Amino acid sequence: MKNFKTISTADSEQLIAEQQPMILDCRDLKDYRAGHIENAMHVHEQLRDSLLKKADKAKPLLIYCYYGHASEHLAEMFGDFGFQQVYSLAGGYADWKEQHKL
Ligand SMILES: O=S(=O)([O-])[S-]
Asked: Which UniProt keywords are listed (predicted)?
């Protein structure tokens, strides 16, 4: 069974507004630097490992990548570690950008 959910850009906005999830950007650092969702952290391996061990597993987590594929793998990993509300942004940052006309 899937231990994370995929979420649309519109629903993720609601999630961000209502639940202030931790937001993780798993794209390349240069793309993160060029623009990212507000308050998103760039996940490099070290941060990922420390979050997996230490972050609050009850806090919602929103993960995105370019188009929504890589984030599913990462979301699955967090789900496997017991994080209870893990979301992967469908369409990734590409969709987010398009919806926000960035
Ligand atoms: O970032 S991606 O896996 O969707 S190409």
From this structure: Transferase
